[in-house]
Specification:
Number of strands: 0
Number of helices: 11
Largest sheet: none
């Protein structure tokens, strides 16, 4: 079993040990979200459970939606206060997502987290420390380790130099640009 499958299918591991809560609007602007993405994000505390209601209401604007979407959107404000009230609906909706799209959920959330930190880097004392945490949460994928450590050697140069920090920010930005094209249609 791949690490990504383990993360998706396990309550023991978390992809959000940094404790970052992403606004639904930010996430939905960054990627095309499906119910598997929402289920994973809510389970790991990346989105609040009310995001499922927002997503359902947006889907109701289209002509083609499932009964569970309507039921979820129609929950009363009193019911929405409790996250357990949404799970029967989002769990059922997530089951209808293809296995490939379920596996992609983990990669989408890695991208969203890294984009969020990059876009808000001035709000963190050390944004590279956060990328290191995120990198570890996702099993140190090759596509981000080259910029995830502020102190990683870059071609034998001075590790803390301004030039290396700028290079890491540039690589981080390139990752975000590449992944944005991948996840948003």
């Amino acid at each position: 079993m791949r690490l990504i499958d383990t993360i998706y299918n396990s309550n023991l591991l978390s992809i959000n040990t940094a404790g970052i809560l992403i606004p639904y609007e930010y996430a939905s602007d960054a990627v095309d979200l499906n119910w598997s993405d929402l289920s994973l994000a809510i389970e790991h505390g990346l989105l609040c459970h009310q995001a499922a209601i927002e997503h359902a209401k947006i889907q109701l604007e289209g002509d083609d939606y499932l009964q569970e979407v309507l039921d979820l959107a129609c929950l009363s404000p009193e019911e929405v206060v409790f996250s357990h009230s949404i799970h029967p609906f989002i769990d059922e909706l997530a089951k209808k997502i293809s296995e490939e799209d379920k596996r992609n959920s983990v990669d989408k959330w890695m991208f969203i987290l890294l984009k969020w930190v990059y876009d808000h880097k001035d709000d963190f004392d050390d944004p590279f420390e956060i990328t290191t945490i995120i990198c570890g949460n996702f099993g140190y994928p090759d596509n981000i380790t080259h910029f995830a450590w502020k102190y990683a050697p870059i071609r034998g140069s001075d590790l803390g130099s301004t030039k290396n920090v700028e290079r890491a920010y540039q690589q981080w930005r390139e990752f975000i640009d590449t992944e944005a094209k991948r996840w948003k249609s």
